[in-house]
Amino acid sequence: MKRIWTAVGIGSLLVAGLAILLFKTPAVQQENLPLGKPLPDTVTVAVAMGEVSFEGSVLPPEAEMRFVDGRVFLKRSETEQWLDERQVERTEFQATPWVMGETEYISINDLCESRGLWPVFYDQGVRLYRYRLQWTEDAEAENAAQQLGMACLRLEDIMADPTDDSRFTHEKLEKLRVMARWLGDRGQEFSVAWIPIYVSPQEGIVNDLTEKFNWYNADFLYTLDVLAENGGHIGLHGLTHQYGEEASAAGYEFGEDSPFSLAEMEERICRAKAIAVKLGYQAEFFEFPHYGMTREQAEIAEKYFRVIYQQEPWAEPYGYVEMRQTEDHSVMYVPTPADYVWSEYDLEGMLARLSESRENDRLISLFFHPSLDYERISCEEGQTPEGERLLTYDEECGILPAIVKRMEQWNLRFGVMW
Fold first, then answer.
1. How confident is the model at residue 239 (pLDDT cuts 50, 70, 90)?
2. Where are the domains of the chain?
3. Radius of gyration of the chain from Cα atoms?
4. CATH no. of 141-414
5. Residue 87 pLDDT more than 60?
6. How high is the pLDDT of residue 8?
7. What separation in angstroms does the CA of 161 have from each of 25, 45, 216, 240, 292?
8. Which of 45, 65, 119, 70 is nearest to 218 (CA)?
9. Among positive and negative, which fits the CA dihedral 297, 300, 302, 307?
10. In 3-state terms, what secondary structure has residue 207?
């Protein structure tokens, strides 16, 4: 499985000629925790006002909290002592803390992995839980999956929408993390079509994760990191996936009717990629919102990406990977001939469309809106002495589990083409 941790300070990666931070720290075999590294000057740091709690105990205020490029960091020594006093055992994972001034901090990502904890965010902070996955983890799933043929799955319209009726509230982001853990434990890799800036003109919202630091955005970034850690490949689904008075994901952005000039469109594509780089993501593909694009717009995207995740509309026949050659690199167009799961009642229709693709030797590829399975995912505090949070994905009734099961019956797994 491809592991892509993207929190400040777990390494570095060169992307488009820029050094960017990747958030992956290898475990080290030593008794003492490693010394911290200085944070680079390129990150943005802001004070985080809120509360971190565990089993009714609140992290003391001297364990200062910071948003570092939007992610939560805690003062290391006080936080570790607080968890030691509550007998939270350490895992084999040992994180490298990061130094701001002369003080060491640890990211919420590393803290939870090093202590085996599950964070639940809300608008004023985060609660930490011991947790239990209510499915059987298969330690050999990843190796077994590598022996299978490949199909393609894309999770669609992933965006930091902070509104009350969003598909990505705190509660639903937690369920999305459960979905990611389940897919990862089954050895499945998938793509994530991320809309970098959520915009709702009617509500006066422009939510840029690189500019607005709050607990909701920290929750979203933590979730995006979990997706990447569990086999997700992050790509860009436009910049805002809208124009005019439309909200993100509802409107278009490019295409024949777009109000933007070609220069403005190129600027939007570059800005989307710059946001990904700032937050530590590689941006492995580009997908035009609602697949709306012209030949000229496609040529702009081809300059900046090696993968365009949609049908190449000027190629025939339909449903096959197409390659185009630019001046300096090749570009792969990856279609989704099975389309998407139209509603919670469309499972049989999707399975039929996948069967049709298989019968016609097309690429077996679809995209899926995670909200369709939220009702089949539960996150509850268990009635155990440890107060564990029980994380469940109904594998009997879930839409995505049924699709994965069908792939396994066909000796296929979900992966990426590039």
1. very high
2. 12-133, 141-414
3. 21
4. 3.20.20.370
5. yes
6. 37
7. 30, 23, 9, 11, 22
8. 70
9. negative
10. strand
With a cut of 90, say whether residue 16 has pLDDT above it. no
pLDDT for 330 beyond 60: yes
Q: pLDDT-derived band of residue 21, with 50, 70 and 90 as boundaries?
A: very low
Phi, then psi, of 115 in degrees rounded to 5: -120, 0
Average pLDDT of span 215-237: 98
Cis peptide before 317 (omega within 30 of 0): yes
The backbone torsions φ and ψ at residue 272, rounded to the nearest 5 degrees and listed phi first, read -60, -45
Q: What CA–CA distance (Å, rounded) separates 12 from 69?
A: 15
What distances in angstroms separate CA 48 from CA 52, 66, 137, 162, one per listed residue?
11, 5, 35, 18
Closest CA relative to residue 10, chosen from 140, 108, 130, 80: 108
Residue 384 token pair: 């155990």
Structure pTM?
Answer: 0.91
Q: How far lies 226's CA from each of 14, 166, 255, 397, in Å?
A: 21, 20, 32, 24
**Cβ 331 vs Cβ 306: under 8 Å:** yes
CA dist 280 → 120, 126, 198, 228 (Å): 22, 22, 18, 11
